[in-house]
Amino acid sequence: xxxxxxxxxxxxxxxxxxxxxxxxxxEMKRGVTIxxxxxxxxxxxxxxxxxxxxxxxxxSKLQDKINEIDPNAFVxxxxxxxxxxxxxxxxxxx
Length: 94
Hints:
alpha+beta, 4 strands, Alpha-Beta Plaits, 2 helices
């Protein structure tokens, strides 16, 4: 599949995962996938891991909001070379 836009996959681990999830869904109009995880650093505890896909134009908006909500969030970004299925669609820029 040929991708016209540049997409980035973003994995977010934060104690404020519910607030971040609601921002992505309600404000950015993007879908999220929640992985159930277990912290392995210092103390073991159950955590929700957020995964979303955004365009190159949306990444700074997401980064800024995550930093505002939880400056200590662990965020990993990966450039996506191929994309198929799901609900990734172009949003109007105006």
